[in-house]
Amino acid sequence: MQFLGISLIFVIYLSCVSGLYFHIAETERKCFIEEIPDETMVIGNYKVQLYDPRTGGFMPSSPGIGMHVEVKDPDDKVVLSRVYSSEGRFTFTSHTPGEHIICLYSNSTKWFSGTQLRVHLDIHVGEQTMDYAGIAQKEKLTELQLRVRQLLAQVDQINKEQNYQRIREERFRQTSESTNQRVLWWSLTQTAILLVMGAWQMRHLKKFFEAKKLV
Q: Where are the alpha helices (DSSP H) in the chain?
């Protein structure tokens, strides 16, 4: 399948995207960029609605339409590539810190008939993916124990974010040092070229004046 256009939507770092929806046409895909620390869970909930030209609106449900979800890590390796139903969730865990690209597109064009799809999407990252109500019920935790569990998860997530920020700072420092070294060597090269050209011109002029017996 060939894609006519790719739209990139930048999502705020480690935030929950609440109430976000977008439209896609035939052979079009939408991609999101998430900056994610390593060993962090990401959950995306989505719902696809097909445009109904008879009513001028979108159908409440669109059975039969599949949604292809593809996730790539900062090394351009495919973390997730799977076809889901018209409504559901996808989950993956990051293993490399950095920008992850999350792309969604329909797995078929026969349902479109030149119309559009509306896709509702919520992305939860890290500690936001925890179902504390379910955990409390399953492990029979008291309110205090549940609160402690939440605090521990938040501390762990903050630690991961801090480690990721250190990695970003180190990458930026290496890039800055590399750029400074290149600028220095380029300046030295220019200076050397100017000195060589100046010496050559002086020698050439000297020979010219000697040939004219002016010196």
A: 132-139, 143-211
pLDDT single digits (tens) 123-135: 888 777 677 677 7
* 78 vs 141 pLDDT, higher one: 78
Q: Are 41 and 129 in contact (CB under 8 A)?
A: yes
Q: For residues 80 and 178, what is the distance between their CA atoms, to the nearest angstrom?
A: 34
Q: Which two tokens stand for residue 192?
A: 């050397």
DSSP E strands, 16-97: 20-24, 28-36, 41-52, 57-58, 67-72, 78-84, 87-93
With CA atoms as reference, report the closest residue to 42 among 160, 143, 162.
Answer: 160
Q: Any alpha helices (H) in 20-127, and if so which ranges?
A: none
Binning pLDDT at 50, 70 and 90, where does residue 101 land? Answer: very high
Question: What's the pLDDT score for residue 110?
Answer: 54
HSE-up of 166 (CA within 13 Å, CB side)?
A: 7
CATH number of the 18-129 domain: 2.60.120.380
Distance between CA atoms of residues 100 and 74, nearest Å: 6
Q: What is the pTM of this model?
A: 0.63
pLDDT of residue 7: 42
Kind of pairing between the strands at 5-10 and 28-36: parallel
